[in-house]
Amino acid sequence: MKWFLAVVLLVVFAGCRRHAGDMTTREWSRVKSPEGWCEASVVEFDWPSRANTQILLAFDGGRCGAGAVTFDGSHSDLELRWSDATTLEVRYPKQLTPTRNPSGEYIQCFDRKVHVILSGL
Is 4's pLDDT higher than 90? Predict the structure, then answer.
């Protein structure tokens, strides 16, 4: 898991070098799937001029992973809940606008697949 998070952070750092100032990260929550093969986390990436909060998935102990959803701004009020072994529900305040990963609502790693449902409350 640690190497996966390091790779994700490196990709984020490399893609965001145009932003001035120091970036900080904060993990707000983390939940394992019922069978334990997928871990979802809410991570905030914060620069002095802007922030975003992402839902990240790590499969099979970090074998691979992906960002599933992004929200502009800092949001510690996002909730993650596994409905079943392969369905993750992301609950967020209705006024927020989520942006999905280009893969859409299904995120896959080799033979593992997670259905990400967005629920504005």
Answer: no
**More confident site: 83 or 13:** 83
Backbone angles phi, psi at 82, to 5 degrees: -85, 120
In angstroms, the CA 116 to CA 103 distance is 11
Which DSSP string do the residues of 11-26 spell out, in sequence order? HHHHHTTTS-S--EEE
How far is it, in rounded angstroms, from Cα 26 to Cα 29? Answer: 9
Two tokens at 74?
Answer: 């800092």
| Token reading at 43 | 């991570």
Angle at 112 between CA 106 and CA 65, to 5 degrees: 75
Considering only CA atoms, which of 77, 64, 71 is closest in space to residue 29?
Answer: 77
The domain limits of the chain are 2-120
pLDDT at 12: 45
